[in-house]
Design brief:
- There is one protein chain.
- It is built from 16 helices and two strands.
- With 368 residues, it is mostly helical.
- Among the domains are: 62 residues, no CATH class; 109 residues, no CATH class.
- A hairpin with a 2-residue loop joins strand 1 and strand 2.
- The longest helix is centred in the last third of the chain and has 29 residues.
- The protein is globular, with a radius of gyration of 24 Å.
């Protein structure tokens, strides 16, 4: 998500904001702007002057950027909790207290929605029984795993049985942390990696560096059960202070942006899809809800000293990686002659590397 920007250096009236909004959505009215203010999606105006007997109420110039971001987000979702949290995640001036409440309410509603789905498989009174609940969850997982479309895209070959089991395992651990029938053994963990397309991360080698994904897959799944369950996420977001929640947001933004760039870069250079095993995470990161889940997860991981140190190291590496991204984008945006001057060594490279550089330039060239 882009950083907040404004299109003017002067304070704005409601009429100015309405003119900006109707360029994108002609149905926006003054009353709609007022509703968004009351929902915490736009800042409230401040009294900054007097026109005769009438007070003048205006907004800071940055409100234009926030309004434009809100209009873009509403093309995907109308959920006020998601909108509120997504604007906060993007760095707009939504109070952290409002964002915290939005994150908690959204995660709880997702949990309640899944419970309602489970109740279609078995009476609510029976879902307290582990075996009944596990059977109902298995039915729901099978339906989700076999859906076509963007909800669960396929990034690598996987048997339907493994895919069914992977969805069942992920849902079960998210809902319960751990419970009878929900295992975290190596076979199930490998199925989850296959579902997410992450298995390629165990094969990727860059120079002398080994794969970024190593160690037993079950260890990662056990950590997810401990830190990524609904209960753990809500508890973390509720209990940490504003500074810690804002740090989790910063790290989540670095992680999502860095994963997206790394996945695009590697795929373009090699000419192969999902070569890093991170394409699914990159795609998930494009949704407005991603900021909610990743902020909550990093807030939860941050309560473990070991995981907090690891997250800090990854965040620092990704921040330093920004210089490489800036350099690639600068070269990609150059006119052809200037680009050739900047890449004087390109003709001397092996043909495969030359092709990779050209694909990378094409991938990051700004749209005309």
């Amino acid at each position: 998500m882009s950083e907040p920007t404004g299109s003017t250096s002067e304070r704005l009236t409601t009429a100015h904001l309405l003119a900006v909004a109707t360029e994108t959505d002609p149905s926006v009215t003054t009353r709609r702007l007022e509703f968004w203010r009351n929902e915490g999606l736009l800042p409230h105006p401040e009294r900054t002057g007097q026109a005769g007997t009438r007070p003048v109420w205006t907004y800071p110039p940055e409100t234009v950027g926030q309004l434009q971001a809100l209009l873009r987000l509403r093309e995907t979702t109308k959920d006020p909790d998601v909108l509120r949290a997504a604007l906060w995640f993007g760095g707009y001036p939504v109070p952290t207290a409002l964002a915290r409440a939005a994150i908690i309410d959204y995660i709880r509603e997702m949990c309640a929605a899944l419970d309602r789905v489970l109740q279609r498989q078995a009476p609510a009174s029976d879902l307290g029984d582990d075996e009944v609940r596990s059977a109902a969850l298995e039915q729901v997982a099978r339906v989700l795993a076999r859906k076509r479309g963007k909800s669960l895209p396929r990034h690598e070959r996987q048997s339907q049985q493994d895919r069914d089991r992977a969805v069942f395992t992920m849902l079960g651990l998210a809902l319960n942390g751990s419970s009878p029938g929900i295992k975290a053994d190596e076979q199930d963990a490998a199925a989850v990696e296959g579902l997410l397309g992450m298995s390629a991360g165990r094969k990727l080698r860059i120079g002398d560096a080994g794969p970024w994904l190593s160690g037993p897959a079950a260890d990662g799944l056990a950590d997810f059960a401990k830190y990524g369950s609904i209960v753990a996420l809500i508890d973390a977001v509720e209990s940490i202070d504003d500074a810690a929640l804002e740090l989790a947001r910063t790290n989540a933004r670095l992680l999502l942006h860095g994963v997206s760039f790394a996945a695009r870069l590697a795929d373009a250079f090699t000419g192969r899809p999902n070569v890093t095993g991170m394409t699914a995470l990159a795609e998930i990161g494009q949704s407005p809800e991603a900021g909610i889940w990743f902020t909550a997860l990093l807030a939860s991981l941050g309560r473990s000293p070991t995981h907090a140190d690891s997250v800090a190291q990854i965040a620092q590496a990704l921040a330093e990686f920004q210089a490489i991204e800036d350099q690639i984008k600068t070269i990609a945006a150059m006119p052809e002659q200037a680009r050739a001057a900047a890449l004087t060594g390109l003709p001397d490279m092996p043909l495969r590397q030359q092709a990779g550089v050209r694909r990378t330039i094409a991938q990051f060239r700004p749209p005309e």
